[in-house]
Amino acid sequence: MSLRVVLVTESFLPSLNGVTNSVLRILDTYRQRGIEALIIAPTAPSPRYLGFEVIRTASFPLKQFNVAVPGLWLQNAIADFNPGLVHVASPFILGGQAIAAAERLGIPSVAIYQTELSGYMERYNLAAAKPLLDLAVATIHGPATLNLAPTKQTADYLRGLGVESVDVWGRGVDLDLFHPNRKSEAATQELRKQWAPGGQKIVGYVGRLAAEKQVHRMAELFSLEDVHFVIVGDGPERKRLETEFVALPGGGDRVTFTGKLTGLELAAAYAAFDVFVHFGTEETFGQTIQEAQATGLPLVAPASGGPLFLVDHGQNGFLAHPSNAGAFTPLVENLLADDDLRGRIGENARRSVLKKSWEANNGLLLEHYGRAMEMVAGRLELA
Fold it and tell me: What's the CATH fold of domain 4-172+357-382?
């Protein structure tokens, strides 16, 4: 495919999160399809990635993020590369400037709405700023040729702000890395021996340990007997969570914090779980839910945000009412007590993501690129 793309992202390596992961998968597709790319990001471990040039911008830390500071050079960098399209991942300050620059240059832009900022503002006691944030989101996304939201719910949010050009594009999942067959592998069995030497069931969580993920709610499940809890991930809340969980009755022996895992180690961890749990109510999507589903895991997640798009209650998982204290416990308990139910839900979970490989998902993204370029070409013809 003969195409040149400037990919502008608010998050990149060495930071690993949902935005970075999606960007890396998109860049894999670029390389496979012969697409030329220039990457512009606030952080980067080297000036090239997969052979693509990386321009690292100035940035400053805000909470756990690096916020890029664009300059007048941004439009020049885009123009000099002469792309057919500008892809903007989770636009904020840098991405907003890139969208505006693309519009001035007459270059089509595709903006990926990925971070539900208003929920984060409320979580960090900044709810009073939500009207201003909504205005900022509308201002940033409004000029984009095409905006892609991960769910119908988030697409409706953008439309409600007056953003006109919006479509739905979800996220892919690695169906080979995350696979039910890993449950029988030696690495997985070794983890089960480490975590549950007495044959306990294992309930696990994977994700960042930050306030908005609400991992503290795992404590609600400590009333369940013969269960070991595993928390995979790292983040600003880790020390506090470790202190809280160890202080619970038997907590020191009942919970394991693994830190961040990636690749085969992460896949083995998923495969070692009996049930996966996810507590965050502010997810625009929920990538770890898809990874658990690909592994064939039964899961319980809140009936809020991204999980509503991914989980069919009673079919490929269960949804708990997030505002009800203890709502997760009976659902997890029922799964742990019924081998047949876990097996059926797990099989359905795997089946529900079989058409969501990264290859298929990014193929849809390239179709959206084509649509955006046609939209701009049509406008130029009418001008």
Answer: Rossmann fold (3.40.50)
What is the C-alpha radius of gyration for the chain, rounded to an integer number of angstroms? 21
User: What pLDDT is stored for residue 68 in this prediction?
Assistant: 86
pLDDT for 115 equals 75
Dihedral in degrees, nearest 10, Cα atoms 300, 196, 340, 318: 0
- Measure Cα distances from 64 to 11, 79, 209, 286 in Å: 11, 32, 11, 19
Under 8 Å between Cβ of 90 and 19: yes
pLDDT confidence of residue 66: 80
pLDDT in tens, 142-156: 999 999 999 999 999
Q: What are the DSSP E strand ranges found in the chain?
A: 4-9, 36-41, 48-49, 52-56, 58-62, 65-69, 85-89, 109-112, 146-149, 166-168, 201-206, 227-232, 255-259, 275-277, 299-302, 318-320
Which is nearest to 164 in space by CA: 183, 135, 144?
144
Q: Say if CB 151 and CB 306 are below 8 A apart.
A: yes
- Output the pLDDT for position 264: 98
User: Residue 357 in contact with residue 177, Cβ under 8 Å?
Assistant: no
Helix 93-105 / helix 73-81 crossing angle, nearest 10 deg: 50
pLDDT in tens, 173-224: 999 999 999 999 999 999 999 999 999 999 999 999 999 999 999 999 999 9
Q: Which of 153, 152, 175, 155 has the alpha carbon at shortest distance from 290?
A: 175
Query: What's the full length of the chain, in residues?
Result: 383
Q: Residues near 22 by Cβ (< 8 Å), separated by ≥ 6?
A: 89, 112, 114, 171
Q: Where are the domains of the chain?
A: 4-172+357-382, 180-352
Inter-residue contact 11 to 376 (CB < 8 Å): no
pLDDT digits (tens, 9 = 90+) for 277-298: 999 998 999 999 999 999 999 9
Report the pLDDT value the prediction gives residue 383, as an integer from 0 to 100.
Answer: 57
Question: What is the arithmetic mean of pLDDT over 309-327?
Answer: 96
Output the CATH code of domain 180-352: 3.40.50.2000
Please tell me whether the overall predicted TM-score, pTM, comes out greater than 0.70 for this model: yes
Q: Answer whether 281's CB lies under 8 Å from 304's CB.
A: yes
Whole-angstrom distance, CA of residue 40 vs CA of residue 303: 36
